[in-house]
Amino acid sequence: MVFQAQKTRYQSMQYRRCGESGLKLPAISLGLWHNFGDTTLLENSRQLLQRAFESGITHFDLANNYGPPPGSAERNFGRILAEDFLPYRDELIISTKAGYTMWEGPYGDWGSRKYLIASLDQSLKRMGLEYVDIFYHHRPDPQTPLQETMKALDHVVRQGKALYIGLSNYPAELAREAFRILNDLGTPCLIHQPKYSMFERAPEEGLLDALRENGVGCIPFSPLAGGQLTDRYLHGIPPDSRAASASRFLNPEQITDEKLSQVRQLNALAESRGQKLSQMALAWILRHDTVTSVLIGASKTAQIDDAVGMLANQHFTAQELETIETILAQPL
Q: Coiled-coil annotation: which residues (predicted)?
């Protein structure tokens, strides 16, 4: 049966202008880091994408190495795009990235012009696209001149292979220099994607200020700290959780008694607000004017529903914010 999106899909989502650009992004964006590779049933991935779009989520975020295996998330997304979403292509923001290891040899990693342009060409073929809306450099390269990397990003925009440029994982001062180079080239940076959550607050140490001062949007990833800021770990480590799965992104050693105490206190505050902990954690990030959108992952459609449901209560009282800071300041 041909997918037909609900006509009401734009009624409940909020859209925010990205930095000083003309582009608006949904407050919630869907990342395809996990659950879209070859180890996941294609039909489950399809259901997630359909539910997201019907909820007003127009932004799907990928990278060349997403899977597993690397490249499979883009390939599977391309298949679903061709079968379900081609009539809606102009309603979608599709982003991808390059910067981590993708293929063997000296030209399949980091930030050289050779790698970035070749990687984007491969990504476009896997997804069956003529262009992506946003192309990111995924991480800084300490050996390639920043000018070379930024000129490569400028080049793919001038080629028409990307509409906008983004950066990810760049620290504040390096981001400032990258913004300056891109502005001089005539292709301003649209957006920055840092790791940011209640448990990972490095962006507050200068990066958010740099983005605000340069008119660049922000889309944090891992806003739920790998699932720690959900109700999954309130009673310890479930056997089917990420922390129990030998994941390199979350291990049992991170789920300490002190961390669980924080999670339980935060959960109690969320319940007093009439929210789930995951919803409060997303709202806490979106309270920043600099943040355009928050990037979620999902393995079930209910997780998308929960994230969108957060939009009904994004306000924090001064007392609530103070309580959160008190909880987070407790020693671990």
A: none
Element (H, E) at 16: strand 15-17
CA distance 296 to 32: 9
| Among the listed residues 309, 306, 323, 233, the one whose alpha carbon sits nearest the alpha carbon of residue 272 | 323
Cis peptide before 220 (omega within 30 of 0): no
| Of 288, 289, 283, 272, the residue nearest 307 (C-alpha) | 283
Q: Quick one: DSSP state of residue 82?
A: I
- What residues contact 37, with CB distance under 8 A and at least 6 apart? 66, 67, 68, 69, 72, 73, 76
Both tokens of 243, joined, read 């922390």
Residue whose token pair is 């949904």: 26
Rg of the chain on CA atoms, in Å: 19
24 SS3 class: strand
Task: Find all residues with CB under 8 Å of 61, minimum gap 6, and list them.
Answer: 29, 30, 31, 32, 33, 95, 193, 219, 295
In angstroms, how far is CA 252 from the centroid of its own chain? Answer: 24
Nearest CA to 92 out of 3, 29, 32 is that of: 29
CA dist 301 and 298 (Å) reads: 7
Above 70 in pLDDT, residue 237? no
pLDDT tens readout for residues 126-150: 999 999 999 999 999 999 999 999 9
**Tens-digit pLDDT profile for residues 22-69:** 999 999 999 999 899 999 999 999 999 999 999 999 999 999 999 999
The alpha carbon of 328 is separated from its chain's Cα centroid by a whole number of angstroms, namely 23
How many C-beta neighbours within 10 Å does residue 16 have?
16
Strand 217-218 relative to strand 24-26, pairing: unpaired
For residue 327, which amino acid is it? I
- Pick the closest to residue 69 from 37, 29, 91 (CA basis): 37
Helix (H, G, I), strand (E, B) or coil at 224: coil
**How far is 165 from 21, CA to CA, in rounded Å?**
12
pTM: 0.95
pLDDT in tens, 244-290: 455 555 666 777 889 999 999 999 999 999 999 999 999 999 999 99
